[in-house]
Each structure stands twice: as C-alpha cells, then as structure tokens.
Amino acid sequence: MAIRSAGRTRKTGAAPRRSARRGAQRRVAILMGSASDWDTMKPAAEVLEELGVASDVRVISAHRTPARHRAYVTKAEANGIDVIIAGAGGAAHLAGVTAALTLLPVLGVPIDSSPLQGLDALLATVQMPGGIPVGTLAIGRVGAKNAGLLAAAILARRDPAVRAALARFRERQTASIPVRP
Ligand code: RP5
C-alpha cells in the first residue's frame, strides 16, 4: 500500500510527514500507532493544512517503538510543537503515554482498526485516571478532523491568523448547509 503525503507517494511503513506551507514551522504533531492508521488520521492533517497550520505527521507506537516515542515527545515542546494529536487503535495507550511525557495538550483519536471497531480504543483513550488528561475526540476520521480543528482552536487563542482562518472555516461550513434537503 502506498500513501500520498505532501505531493509524494510513500510506501506504508515510512513515517508520513506533512507541512501546510513549505518551510513553515510545524506546530501540531500528529502521531499514530501504525502506518495503517494514516487513512483515518489524514483528516487532521488536511483540516490543519486548510487553516494554514503546519503539522508534523509521524508513525510512533508507544509499544512497538517506545524509544522513538519517548525521544520525539520529550523534545516536542523544545522543537516548537504546541499541541500533540495521538491516534491509535486496539488497547490504545499512545495518547495517554504521550500525555505522561509532556506538558503539551494531547488530543486522542480512537481508531476503529480492531474487531471491536474502536470501542476498545475509545475506552482506553478516554478513561485516563485523574492526573494525566487526554482530550479525547470521536472514533475514526470524524474524530481526527475534530482533533485538527480543536488543535487550531488552542493555537487561535494566541494567533490571530489561525483565529481568522477558523472563523472563515466556520463561515464556509455554515454557508454550505442547505436550507432544505
Ligand atoms: C495499534 O494497532 C495501531 O494504532 C493500529 O490501529 C493497530 C493495528 O496496527 P497494525 O497491526 O495495522 O500495524 O497499535
């Protein structure tokens, strides 16, 4: 399987990278437990790109690549990342372990990749014990899109350009809703 990213085709297994603008600083990290999660997580990258926010997309598994995970997350804030989105399926601990390793806000996306169709990932992601929060979105592509929008809303508190882009997004969305079916 091949995946498209930033105008090039990559083989599954290689970490997809994406930047909204060439040379723009990547401010939102989009992590996923497997390259097989990319189709589900892509809406997060797409909506951020639409809003002009650069993202850094990585395949990082808390259990298959723990050293890669720790190295990336512990340096994320120093590398200019403001928000981390973490999507995983099954016994999904990626978002929770990510949140434990950083003070950055972490948004979790449960992925429907298992026989339980994401219910397992939803419970694993949302049911964090008190002390280490994960902001959990809906299961699947809708959750990924909303994670991108919520990350942008967090950035918008201090970034007027992102706030204006979000406002335009809402206006376009409202205008696209027909009055009658
Ligand atoms: C999880 O296991 C990943 O997030 C993915 O959703 C699921 C299946 O991964 P693969 O076996 O397809 O790599 O860790």
How many H/I helical runs?
Answer: 6
CATH architecture: 3-Layer(aba) Sandwich
Q: Calculate the terminal CA-CA distance, rounded to whole Å.
A: 38 Å
CATH class: Alpha Beta
**Structural class by sheet pairing and helices:** alpha/beta
> How much helical structure, as a percent, in the residues?
25-40%
Which word captures the global form? globular
- H/E element sequence: EEEHEHEHEHEHH
Quick rundown:
The protein is α/β, with parallel strands linked by helices and 181 residues long. It is built from 6 helices and 7 strands; from the N terminus they run βββαβαβαβαβαα. α1 packs parallel to α5.
Keywords:
single chain, 181 residues, alpha/beta, Rossmann fold, five-stranded parallel sheet, two-stranded antiparallel ribbon, 7 strands, binds 5-O-phosphono-beta-D-ribofuranose
